[in-house]
Specification:
This protein is mainly α. The chain has helices at residues 3-24, 33-53, 62-84, 96-126, 131-164, 169-172, 175-202, 208-228, 246-251, 258-275.
Length: 276
């Protein structure tokens, strides 16, 4: 792997973590500034992904195209974060209109992750690994619709808040139900990622140590999620800052997409290596 592709790979690997900083710095939410930062950040991700994949999506060999497509779909979520969420902050910091945009983007993110894993399952089947890929496929097929349902509800809450001035009691009464929906969606996404990491390890598209590390990280996230319980806590009611609460962090809707993004970077690298 040449130096340009290596730099592109390293950059993509730090994107999810850098994004939390970029999103969290509310002071940058100045008209004209955050849009410019978002466009530049998005362009950097797009260029890195294209450089890393070496145009694999246009390859003649089906397996290379599948890898390239799966990789691009899996890195799409944080590319959208880079473009649209600069200095957005948490839902408790953003305006109702900004939060509506937040949940629309999360719908696209969930769809991209589900699509990426579906394509990856096809690529893994072509490579002869079906057991873990099928388990991951089953989990993501359940989690994707749940994320869409939860995000539609969250969008509706802030839509009502913007246009009616307050959230109707009829929507508030559903909070506990939708906390459960989000919990199950996150749980299944972590589970799907564990299964696909195992599958990638079986076909040696991911190193043994990397595969185990991915499985362990997602397993720990699942454990924290279970310890926290079904109800998603209000960060303003926590006794300590939200970022010091593992149960809260792993339940943030975008957090389960971090490891799939990293797997996407691995797939793009693999696709590019096969092309070169």
């Amino acid at each position: 792997m040449n130096i340009v592709r290596r730099v592109s790979y390293v950059f993509l690997c730090i994107v999810p973590f850098l994004s939390f900083v970029v999103v969290g710095v509310r002071a940058l939410r100045v008209p004209g500034v955050y849009q410019a930062v978002g466009v530049a950040y998005f362009a950097a991700i797009a260029i890195a992904a294209w450089t890393l994949s070496a145009g694999a999506i246009r390859a003649d060999v089906l397996s290379r195209r599948l890898l390239g497509l799966a990789g691009r779909l899996l890195v799409t979520p944080f590319a959208l974060v880079a473009l649209l969420w600069v200095s957005l902050g948490g839902p408790w910091q953003a305006s109702a209109a900004e939060n509506q945009m937040r949940y629309l983007v999360l719908m696209v993110m969930a769809t991209a992750i589900a699509g990426g894993f579906v394509v990856l399952r096809e690529a893994l089947s072509e490579a002869g690994e079906r057991f873990y890929a099928t388990l991951g496929f089953a989990a993501i097929m359940l989690s994707g619709p749940l994320y869409l349902i939860w995000n539609i509800f969250a969008f509706g809450v802030f839509f009502a808040k913007q246009h009616a001035g307050e959230v109707p009691q009829s929507l508030r009464s559903l909070d506990d139900i939708f906390d459960l929906v989000l919990f199950v969606a996150g749980f299944l996404t972590y589970l799907a990622t564990v299964a696909f990491a195992a599958s990638l390890g079986r076909v040696q598209w991911l190193g043994r140590r990397a595969s185990r590390a991915c499985m362990i990280v997602n397993g720990v996230a699942l454990l924290f999620l279970l310890i926290r319980g079904v109800q998603y806590p209000d960060p303003r009611a926590l006794s300590a800052p939200w970022y010091t609460s593992p149960g809260f962090v792993v339940g943030i809707p975008a957090v389960p997409f971090i490891m799939p993004f990293l797997l996407g970077a691995v797939l793009l690298r693999r696709a590019g290596e096969e092309q070169s």
